[in-house]
Recover the amino acids of this structure.
């Protein structure tokens, strides 16, 4: 095992810094009783911003692909791309949480601290290069998320969400770890490149062990991205968790899970590509079909968005499945667009919330176009984007995800994908029907109380449209951050 | 005189002027009274129509196939470009769009009473979407416009529609979106076949591009089985839009529930996008598949002609009757295109314009009378020609144009189609003629029940005749009906080159197929 040079810790500076900010907030919140909520919010944002600066700074400190800290971590453009995406998503989540901070019913310092720690976990995970460093970072992200989901501690639904999420999440982490141990038993390594090199031999010697190992590993990861049949936790957790947390889980957490899924599949399970392609294809199809069909019947907007996020896991898996350059950058591009659209859509839900859980039934949207034209227009952009109608990033991303499938010969998966995304129009437009086609009993304008929140939603909408009209620079960015193809 | 047109990005101006107007309304006219929004937006489409007219004069009949070209990088790494350009067919459809757009804005002044600002904004966005579809020369760009346009139409039906508007709006949106997403796969298959290749069929290794003329160029190199699949998915997309039997079921709902202007645009322009798709993409890019599937296409066209006419005859609602007559008329257009010779395609393209004019006018007229009486049931009328003589006259002219009376536009179109079809297979034409007879029957019968006879219904007494504004938006159509009917030559001349181009491709494929069949037969007999 190669030794560790002290200066290699430099590369973990962003993560260490962010973790330090998170823990400082926690301490500050518990000693200072009267700590200003706004200040905590400000400190979190400042911390995220500085972390982003650090990420950019270390980008230039080594060439892409360098292994660090006894090969536990890798420094590459792929990781940098995702780290920036997570930081943006977390910053937007902080803005989304603004109202909920103002109301001040729960301690804000813990909330922001956990949010930052979860983000630290994601950032570490995406640059992890051994199965164990990945697993530990994943646990940091997951444990923080469990608590966040139960943050409304006096609400039954929130408790239920946290408990469900925790039990099923712990089970999936266990399965993941079991898969890792099986693979270690078969190959004697947890480092991804080594694993890829030793897998063919191990497969010949001990096929059963390898098969069980990678299937358990894949199952654990597919649980995190909420793909069918590992999705059952999603609707209840999304509905029960505080809405900003739901947004964070649906956007950042999903993006992080996809990032690491691709890293492991493309760099570690490379020799098994033909095997896992079959698994990914079937899971993608199941997710698209079941997610969309189940979303059709929902009466609650958050639950509908939960099923839509399952369906989107299916579309995005097409990018994994294709194993070509288009598929990989389209996946990255689409997750970028998806993150913004999802955060925006949940942000709109938050704006409409009167108490913890209002703003969720379709009826809450009735006549919104009259009562708050701006808000309705923004929501329309997100819904069109999620459906995949131009000119939005959602359309462009989907177009190239399907393109990847056509190019690599998985046309039948693309056929199912386009048909299901046409079907998804029905439930997304269900919200539009209420917003634009129906009159509300209440005609008073909706007060846009939180300018910060409206600003964040506006930003999401702007970028969603920008990604659809001028996707070029973003495509370039994703293309410069690709992993080597298996 | 019109040379300056060539130096301007005139197509972009025509296409995006309505969008700019919509942005002005959204950003600067939030508190303006409805009246000024109405006047402003109508002025915008009026100006848009005026600046589209020079295209007609500056277009060189014998010049390049595609003119007024605009070409810019858009998404460089993917070969997606911003390419605008029009041939004679697109030119005619663009003029039809700007004209009908303007007229339908005028017709909305009295028809739309609620949420006017939103209404005119969506109408403007719709204009931009439709114009872009006819101007785009990049398949990606085309697809973007093709889908974008669905959104404002969905809102127009959903907000300002009739009693069953919600059902009609989502049905329209779902049907057309379903067709277009499948079409997307066909576009992707063409794109990859032209460049890096598809797993099963390989590829030509050309530069990555969505440029439509590039696809025309490689049409002979696309293997027939690949052509077959692409044709199939294109067919679903375009046939839903046309709509061809049996994909027509969204049309009566959408037409009946849409507000008058929405119906005019739907019938006048949106349906033409389907037929335009066939003549621009399916026929010239996939000629072998066209020939292979010819019996099916012709069969569905003829069924559409007859079925549409028969169902129209049974309608009690005037608007629904006109809607079903569209199914029948569009069947004619399709039959003309699938005659696969230049006469038939000429007739088909001209009939697209004719149908846009006469059916657009019929919907406008139905809207006029609906605003006065709030009913569209034939049985509620009768004998109103005595109350509204001018209205009755205009209605008669348009009815006769629609059924193809000589000296009016419909005759020229249908006759040309029939000649073309007769030259291909005579009995196709024979079957189609039955449709003309039926068409005359249901239209004249409807006219008779509405306008003639005794004035029995008390409510119809004292109905006001057409006012100046209504005359203003109806007269241009009447004039055009006569112009095309009496002197269609300029129209045929402008579409001559592109039509010949398409006809040559498909005719060659047809001849090849016939030859292959003949040799196949002779080989069999030799065995």
């Amino acid at each position: 095992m190669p030794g560790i040079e002290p200066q290699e810790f430099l590369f973990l500076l962003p993560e260490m810094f962010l973790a330090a900010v998170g823990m400082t907030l926690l301490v500050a919140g518990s000693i200072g009783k009267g700590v200003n909520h706004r200040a905590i919010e400000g400190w979190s944002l400042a911390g995220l911003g500085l972390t982003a600066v650090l990420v950019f700074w270390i980008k230039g400190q080594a060439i892409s692909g360098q292994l660090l800290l006894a090969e536990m971590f890798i420094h590459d453009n792929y990781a940098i791309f995702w780290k920036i995406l997570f930081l943006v998503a977390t910053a937007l989540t902080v803005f989304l949480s603004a109202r909920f901070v103002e109301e001040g019913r729960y301690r804000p310092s813990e909330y922001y601290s956990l949010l930052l720690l979860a983000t630290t976990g994601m950032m570490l995970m995406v640059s992890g290069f051994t199965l164990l460093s990945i697993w530990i970072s994943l646990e940091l992200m997951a444990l923080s998320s469990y608590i966040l989901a139960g943050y409304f501690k006096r609400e039954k639904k929130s408790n239920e969400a946290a408990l469900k999420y925790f039990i099923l999440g712990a089970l999936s982490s266990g399965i993941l770890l079991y898969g890792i141990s099986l693979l270690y038993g078969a190959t004697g390594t947890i480092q991804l490149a080594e694993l890829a090199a030793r897998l063919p031999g191990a497969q010949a010697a001990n096929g059963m062990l390898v098969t069980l190992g990678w299937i358990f590993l894949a199952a654990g990861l597919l649980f995190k991205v909420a793909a069918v049949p590992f999705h059952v936790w999603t609707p209840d957790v999304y509905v029960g968790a505080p809405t900003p947390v739901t947004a964070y889980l649906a956007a950042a957490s999903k993006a992080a899970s996809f990032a690491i899924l691709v890293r492991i599949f493309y760099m570690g399970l490379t020799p098994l590509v033909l095997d896992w392609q079959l698994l990914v294809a079937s899971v993608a199809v199941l997710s698209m079909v079941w997610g969309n069909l189940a979303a059709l019947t929902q009466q609650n907007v958050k639950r509908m968005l939960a099923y839509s996020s399952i369906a989107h896991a299916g579309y995005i898996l097409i990018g994994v499945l294709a194993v070509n350059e288009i598929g990989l950058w389209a996946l990255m591009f689409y997750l970028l667009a998806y993150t913004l659209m999802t955060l925006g859509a949940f942000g709109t839900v938050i704006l409409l919330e009167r108490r913890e859980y209002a703003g969720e039934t379709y009826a809450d949207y009735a006549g919104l176009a009259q009562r708050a034209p701006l808000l309705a227009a923004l929501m329309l952009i997100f819904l069109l984007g999620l459906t995949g109608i131009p000119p939005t990033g959602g359309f462009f991303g989907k177009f190239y995800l399907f393109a990847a499938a056509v190019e690599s010969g998985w046309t039948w998966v693309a056929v199912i994908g386009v048909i299901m995304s046409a079907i998804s129009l029905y439930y997304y437009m269900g919200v539009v029907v209420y917003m634009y086609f129906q009159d509300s009993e209440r005609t008073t304008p909706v007060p846009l109380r939180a300018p910060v929140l409206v600003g964040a939603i506006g930003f999401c909408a702007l970028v969603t449209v920008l990604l659809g009209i001028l996707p070029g620079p973003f495509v370039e960015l994703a293309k410069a951050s690709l992993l080597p193809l298996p | 005189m019109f040379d300056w047109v060539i130096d301007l990005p005139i197509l972009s101006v025509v296409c995006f002027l309505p969008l700019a107007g919509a942005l002005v309304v959204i950003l600067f006219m939030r508190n303006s009274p409805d009246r000024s929004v109405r006047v402003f937006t109508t002025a915008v489409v009026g100006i848009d129509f005026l600046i589209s007219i020079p295209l007609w004069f500056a277009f060189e009949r014998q010049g390049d196939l595609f003119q007024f070209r605009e070409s810019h990088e858009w998404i460089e790494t993917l070969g997606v470009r911003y390419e605008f350009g029009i041939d004679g067919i697109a030119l005619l459809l663009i003029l039809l769009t700007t004209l009908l757009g303007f007229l339908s804005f005028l017709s909305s002044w009295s028809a739309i009473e609620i949420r006017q600002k939103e209404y005119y904004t969506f109408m403007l966005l719709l204009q931009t979407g439709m114009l872009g579809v006819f101007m785009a020369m990049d398949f990606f760009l085309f697809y973007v416009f093709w889908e974008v346009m669905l959104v404002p139409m969905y809102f127009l039906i959903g907000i300002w529609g009739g009693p069953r508007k919600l059902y009609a709006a989502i049905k329209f949106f779902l049907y057309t979106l379903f067709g277009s997403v499948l079409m997307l796969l066909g576009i992707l298959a063409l794109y990859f076949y032209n460049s890096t290749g598809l797993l099963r069929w390989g590829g030509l290794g050309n530069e990555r591009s969505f440029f439509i003329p590039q696809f025309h160029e490689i049409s002979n190199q696309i293997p027939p089985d690949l052509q077959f699949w692409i044709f199939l998915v294109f067919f679903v997309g375009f046939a839903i839009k046309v709509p061809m039997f049996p994909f027509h079921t969204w049309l009566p709902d959408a037409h009946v529930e849409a507000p008058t202007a929405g119906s005019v645009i739907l019938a006048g322009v949106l349906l033409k996008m389907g037929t335009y798709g066939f003549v621009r993409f399916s026929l010239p890019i996939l000629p072998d598949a066209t020939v292979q599937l010819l019996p099916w296409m012709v069969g569905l066209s003829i069924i559409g002609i007859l079925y549409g006419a028969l169902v129209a005859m049974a309608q009690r609602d005037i608007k629904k009757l006109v809607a079903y007559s569209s199914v029948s008329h569009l069947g004619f257009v399709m039959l003309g295109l699938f005659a696969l010779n230049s006469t038939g395609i000429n007739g088909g393209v001209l009939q697209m314009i004719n149908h846009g004019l006469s059916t657009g006018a019929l919907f406008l007229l139905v809207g006029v009378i609906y605003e006065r009486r709030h009913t569209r049931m034939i049985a509620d009328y009768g004998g109103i020609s005595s109350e509204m003589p001018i209205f009755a006259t205009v209605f008669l002219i348009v009815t006769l144009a629609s059924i193809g009376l000589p000296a009016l536009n419909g005759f020229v179109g249908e006759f040309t189609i029939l000649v073309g079809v007769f030259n291909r297979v005579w009995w196709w034409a024979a079957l189609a003629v039955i449709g003309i007879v039926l068409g005359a029957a249901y239209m004249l019968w409807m006219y008779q029940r509405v306008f003639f006879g005794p004035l029995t219904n008390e409510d119809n007494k004292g109905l006001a005749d057409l006012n100046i504004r209504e005359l203003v938006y109806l007269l241009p159509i009447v004039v055009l009906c006569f112009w095309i009917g009496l002197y269609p030559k300029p129209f045929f001349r402008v579409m001559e080159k592109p039509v010949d181009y398409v006809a040559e491709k498909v005719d060659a494929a047809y001849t090849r197929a016939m030859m292959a069949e003949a040799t196949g037969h002779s080989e069999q007999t030799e065995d």
